[in-house]
């Protein structure tokens, strides 16, 4: 059972509204924030100043995009899941293929994150909804290895501080948080259920410096904090119905939301929200690769907006 409710103030921190904002990532290289609008295929960057999210540039990456992860060096850009594969998005907006044809033809790539070894883990979601999708890891050379099959909607994914435990959400059909042991070579074992997540669909997830898991619960209008043993520690009610993902920018919990599919969106639906918490988090772990990897530059895709 969760503790007594804390006094929290949830604020809208973005001026913009998005169709399906997802995957916020705190950039440890320059302190900025990156996120995507999955439905419009745009990768966005900005920064938080004075409690407000200031929009920076955006890049049209593709028809659908998934999670981003920074490269190690400042100015080296981002690796971004997109449609059926993964691309590199340069800071000036150029797009280069890294891996192609991971997802099945009717499916598309979704959430992901890097582990402390620099591998980018990313999964796909199935269309129609049945368990034929997968979770992959992509090493610094761009080599993809299927790590888990039988996935339906690959969503939240985080690693503990040592990288020896992975927490993972395959949203359907079980609506639960799972955990795996992770070997140094990336092999997964000892799959177990941490807890069921009721009242909505568990979506994006992050981990704080105490090892606690923050989860956005789509259609519940909530973000919840769970312990690694599955105990519900706190529930934060939101003014938005469909929170999609979370990130900790130090002690600011950043929450992306969606307006897609809502007949009468509120002022908060599709906005990016922020709430101060006691225990902060760390910047997004970077991908260990460097560009170019011998991939091809797609001159027909992309384009940076100021």
Automatic annotation (TrEMBL):
SUPFAM superfamilies: Calcium-dependent phosphotriesterase. GO terms for molecular function: calcium ion binding; gluconolactonase activity; L-arabinonolactonase activity. Transmembrane segments: none annotated. Keywords: Hydrolase, Metal-binding, Zinc. Its cofactor is Zn(2+). Residues 21-258 form the SMP-30/Gluconolactonase/LRE-like region domain. The keyword Hydrolase applies. Pfam families: SGL. Its EC number is 3.1.1.15. Substrate binds at residue 110. Binds 1 divalent metal cation per subunit. The active site is at residue 203. One of its GO terms (biological process) is L-ascorbic acid biosynthetic process. It comes from the Bacteria. It is an enzyme of class 3 (hydrolase). A divalent metal cation binds at residues 22, 155, 203. This is L-arabinolactonase.
């Amino acid at each position: 059972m969760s503790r007594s409710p804390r006094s929290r103030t949830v604020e809208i921190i973005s001026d913009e509204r998005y169709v399906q904002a997802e995957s916020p990532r705190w950039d440890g290289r320059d302190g900025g924030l990156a996120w995507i609008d999955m439905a419009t295929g745009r990768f966005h960057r900005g920064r938080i100043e004075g409690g407000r999210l200031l929009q920076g540039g955006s890049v049209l990456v593709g028809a659908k995009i998934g999670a981003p992860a920074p490269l190690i060096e400042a100015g080296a850009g981002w690796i971004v899941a997109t449609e059926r594969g993964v691309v590199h998005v340069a800071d000036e907006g150029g797009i280069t293929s890294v891996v192609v044809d991971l997802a099945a033809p009717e499916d598309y790539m979704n959430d992901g994150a890097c582990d402390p070894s620099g591998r980018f883990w990313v999964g796909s979601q199935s269309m129609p909804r049945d368990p034929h999708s997968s979770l992959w890891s992509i090493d610094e050379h761009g080599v993809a290895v299927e790590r888990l099959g039988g996935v339906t909607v690959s969503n939240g994914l985080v690693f503990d501080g040592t990288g020896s435990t992975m927490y993972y959400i395959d949203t359907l059909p079980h609506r639960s948080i799972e955990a795996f042991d992770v070997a140094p070579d990336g092999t997964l074992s000892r799959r177990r259920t941490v807890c069921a997540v009721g009242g909505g669909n568990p979506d994006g997830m992050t981990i704080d410096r105490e090892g606690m898991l923050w989860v956005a619960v789509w259609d519940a209008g909530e973000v919840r904090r769970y312990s690694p043993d599955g105990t519900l520690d706190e529930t934060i009610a939101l003014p938005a119905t469909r929170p999609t993902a979370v990130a900790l920018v130090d002690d600011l919990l950043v929450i992306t939301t969606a307006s897609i599919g809502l007949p009468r969106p509120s002022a908060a639906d599709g906005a990016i929200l922020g709430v101060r918490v006691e225990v902060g988090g760390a910047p997004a772990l970077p991908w260990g690769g460097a560009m170019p990897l011998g991939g091809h530059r797609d001159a027909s895709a992309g384009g940076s907006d100021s």
